[in-house]
Description:
Elements: E1 3-9, H1 17-24, E2 33-39, H2 44-52, E3 58-62, H3 68-81, E4 86-90, H4 102-106, E5 109-112, H5 118-128, E6 136-138, H6 156-161, E7 164-166, E8 169-171, E9 187-189, H7 192-204, E10 209-212, H8 221-237, E11 244-249, H9 256-262, E12 270-277, H10 281-286, H11 293-306, E13 310-317, H12 324-336, E14 341-346, E15 365-366, E16 374-376, H13 382-400, H14 407-412, H15 416-431, H16 439-452, H17 457-473, H18 482-485
Parallel strand pairs: 1-2, 1-3, 3-4, 4-5, 5-6, 7-10, 10-11, 11-12, 12-13, 13-14
Antiparallel strand pairs: 8-9, 15-16
Helix pairs in contact: 2-3, 8-9, 13-15, 16-17
Iron/sulfur cluster (SF4) binds near residues 181, 215 and 250.
GO molecular function, one term: iron-sulfur cluster binding
GO cellular component, one term: cytosol
Pfam family, one: DUF4080
Amino acid sequence: MSIILSTLNARYTHASLGLRYLLANMGDLRGKTQLVEFVIGTKTTEIVEQLLAKHPKIIGFGVYIWNVEETERVVAMLKRVAPQIKIILGGPEVSYESAEQSIVQLADYLITGWGEVTLPQLCKQILNGPQPLMKTHVGVQPPLNDLALPYSLYTDEDIAHRTLYVEASRGCPFKCEFCLSALDKTAWPFDLDVFLAEMETLYQRGARLFKFVDRTFNLNIKSSLKIMQFFLDKIAAYPDDPVFAHFEVVPDHLPEALKAGISQFPAGALQFEIGIQSFNPEVQALVSRKQNNEKAADNISWLIEHSHAHLHVDLIAGLPGEDMASFGRGFDQLYALRPHEIQFGILKRLRGTPIIRHTSDFGMVYDPYPPYTILANGLIDFANMQRLVRFSRYWDLVANSGRFANTLPVLLGDAPFARFMAFSDWLYANTDATHRIALDRLAKMVGEWLVLHSLSELAAAELIASDYAGKSKRGKSGATPQRQAMHLPA
Length: 490
Ligand code: SF4
């Protein structure tokens, strides 16, 4: 095999859409190209051995924030044991600020931006000469309809066991400064009929779980409706064979036609990831995020009351201009809307993102190592930032997990952020752990906390037991992923 396209995925269940796009667009080199995926945490020697066993002349790596450190070790080892193999890097992590990156220095070639057109051109030059003169190649961005779609490259095993990522559009017209999509000038749609024909084939092959990576699914309502109708038709035709679709939506744009479509989905079939990030208008202005907070809140309430969509809403802590009190107010405001999950993220300075302009004015201090998480800023010091990091982790374990559905409202009372922060501080002081807390121990700790805060031992035990009883009635249901199924009515 002359060419290997490889990446280290964050999990086995994540099948790389980017690699499949590259393979689909290799043209007459496609027969000589093989896709080889790994999972982070695999031993470097194991990865290198598997790659070398295929005797490639070229290896292209997809480099992302989650795999850059491990990929660098792989590239460094390859360069020692098989220096004749040409290494090409691509992907968002190496597309910006690349000159200063040690992984780029180790590699032979770099493609920044889109790779589908430029990678086969570069490989042809390497294989047939004349050898490329430049190390860095700016990826050509073709019209989307010129790209070969990658969906037939999902294997039967991918369909059976992995999340299928799909995209009906690329790019985003908004300019939120913490986000890599802020660098896109607009959003580009794929030909919708061609795309839906591919979805039909995937469906016929057995795919039931579709994760759309479009940055803003509800930008073009006509397209959104057509895509939703595709799934509604499947649900109507095969009501006993459930399907699950995940979309990222902007919260302040939910016209009536879209609401009418959304409300037809049964429970466990639809998930929306909704970015709020901050409810503070000054912070939003600082990071160039345009959001009508009132409309956004109304729409989230509408979705909760009138649809079965599972809502996963994002907030970011550590943004410039946001102190603990402001973040806490935003958190409480969001919690009051009762989304199923609040994804509480900590700001990361992604390479190339414009948020860097605030670094000195707002005292933004970022970890120099991936994922470049904020460590402190002028309003939140390091110690408090760590408290927020733990809050986020414990929130995931206790609230987002859906395991304490009856207990959570009692734990949070009328001051969700303040009370959960106090619980989080106490839990950390008494366990010294953030990641591995067995469920039984966690339940015991939640019970202890409630007793310390005026619940009788009997009442606390009954409350916790009611959640365990509830849990036993839930679980995996059809195509609904287990975590989302935990939020379905028992
Ligand atoms: S955060 Fe969302 S809306 Fe803002 S630029 Fe990124 S993808 Fe677009």
